[in-house]
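Aim 2 progress update. The chain analyzed this quarter is reproduced below.
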Amino acid sequence: MMLLWAGLRLGELLELRRKDIRGLTGSELVTLQVRRNAQRMEDPDSHKQVMVSFDTPKTDAGNRDIVLPKTVSNALRTHCRNFVADGLEALIVTTTTGAAMLDTTFRNRFNPVKKAAGRPDISPHDCRRFYGTQLVTEGRVSLEEARRLMGHETVEQLLDYQRAATGYEKRAAAALDALVPPVTMNEKKTTPKKTGDTA
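Predicted structure tokens:
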């Protein structure tokens, strides 16, 4: 849900901690404060793959606050109450032992879920694309506002994420139709003049 409805990069999700979440104990909408990123790297001593935390997101524009929809806010509260350790530094997404989860482990868990949903073709990053598209088509936010929520540095990056959904032609017409004031047409039938009339 967090990838679909918050548009987080996978590294941002895997580095999200209790201290980054506002509104967990209340009933208002939850706000995520995206301030860090995690990347998989090789430990120079053990030569094992580990997740390394960075104190900055992927880009400067990646520092952002995201307000979650009500349903997602409530789901995150339940998840934190049941599955997340106490303490501000506790990671929101972990392995069953409470360790930081590798992105490869996340993908291995994501694969059966996407197949069960009938979408074996999607990746975690496609969820981010979905979020960006929904912001613009359904979220009633400007391109600049959507750019900020996505953590992109330019609007052009956001536009690269856009997907043309089916039925966009009718949606565009309906949106414009709502702006057109009522028009009263003259119902009186007139006969066109014939060529050569001298009226």
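The mean pLDDT is 85. The two ends are 72 Å apart (CA to CA). These observations will guide the mutagenesis experiments scheduled for the next reporting period.
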